[in-house]
Amino acid sequence: MSPAYATFGLEPATRVGAVLADGGYQVHRDFVDFVVDGSPLLFRLSDLDAVSPLAADLPPAVLDAQVRALLLEDEPPLPGGRFVLYGCPECADLGCGAVTVVIERDGDDFRWRDFAWQTGEHVDLERDGYHGTGPFRFHGPAYRATLTALLDGTHDAAPPRRVLLIGPRAGLLAKLAAALRGIGIGADITQDAGAVPAEELSCYGAALTGPTLPEAERAALRETFKDTDTALVDAPAPVVPLLVAQLQQALDRAPEGRRRLTALTATPYAAEIEVTAPGRVQLTAYRFDRLRRTRTHTVLDAALGPGHHRLPLDPRTVRGEAYLVARTSGGVLVAPVRGDPARD
């Protein structure tokens, strides 16, 4: 009887960064995720903020070593033949916790078994194992070809993680550029996008027009970018965390089936959100009072299961001009609050 095989693949993935309430940053990381039987492996591990060791910012020699390890051409880094599949996106320290697995050869094939959450040199499978995940047997030649494609450059690359900010350099855009760079997204500022050579525009995954830019100039920019893959974003309001979230949404080119969040709408009384895989969801409201001061309110910070969720809102937290930002470890959605709530 022939063995049952699981399919093995790789695809670009993102751990989105954030500007935190205390002024700190949560770093943005691009990495390559493992796809098993057509589904991202990270989605099977529920609420996990982690990245694979195949990160986009690794030097070539380090990436080569990571691939060689998955091919069992290097010794396992942990006792018991265990390898790290996902680790802390901030520091990669095992003490923060990691998903590990035993990788072994079975003839020409490769097998992944005994998935576990590990915080030290040794693991207790009974207590910390991911029961029901695996084992997976991968056809050897296909597994090897998929991983070595990372080294020869034939694997699909992630889209550009660089943005162009268009408008006056002083004030808002300077702060926005600093925040984007703080979380790991490259940002350049120009007052005139027409001065940027056409061949350089393709280096930007998204471009944002500042809120003070005249409409005639916005229209000209839409014409400039219409034949590029660059997403053009109009700044809805001068709030740095909101603009960061909007640009992160524009940079996300993953197909809908590969996103945890697929839809977000809001009225003054409820937010509607679509979730494809279980995980922690944070929902934040930003609004402006009569003096144009920004008010921020955490609406939700909880684990949600797959499906459609209707979340009641207190109209007082979204009165006037308001926006909602929904965030998971892998994606961000921004939506205006539609309706006519009373102002302050």
Task: Summarize the structure in words.
With 344 residues, the chain is an alpha+beta fold. The chain has three domains: 8-152, no CATH class; 159-253, 3-Layer(aba) Sandwich (Rossmann fold); 256-344, Sandwich (Immunoglobulin-like). It has helices spanning 41-44, 60-70, 125-128, 140-152, 172-183, 198-201, 215-225, 240-251, and strands at 8-15, 18-19, 25-26, 29-36, 39-40, 82-86, 98-106, 109-118, 136-138, 162-166, 186-190, 206-209, 231-234, 261-266, 270-275, 279-288, 294-304, 307-312, 322-328, 331-336. The chain has a four-stranded antiparallel β-sheet with strand order 6-7-8-9. A four-stranded parallel β-sheet has the order 11-10-12-13, sandwiched between helices. The chain has a four-stranded antiparallel β-sheet with strand order 17-16-19-20, with helices on one face. β12, α7 and β13 form a beta-alpha-beta unit. α2 (60-70) packs antiparallel against α4 (140-152) and α5 crosses α8. It is globular.
Name the helix and strand elements from N-terminus to C-terminus, one letter apiece: EEEEEHHEEEHEHEHEHEHEHEEEEEEE
Counting DSSP H or I runs of 4 or more residues, the number of helices is: 8
- Round the Cα radius of gyration to an integer and report it: 22 Å
Output the strand order for the largest sheet.
6-7-8-9
The number of distinct β-strands equals: 20
Structural class label: alpha+beta
- The tally of structural domains comes to 3
**pLDDT average, as an integer?**
87
Low-pLDDT windows of residues = none
Largest sheet: 4 strands, antiparallel
Q: Give the % helix.
A: 10-25%
Strand content: 25-35%
**Shape verdict:** globular
C-alpha end-to-end distance: 72 Å
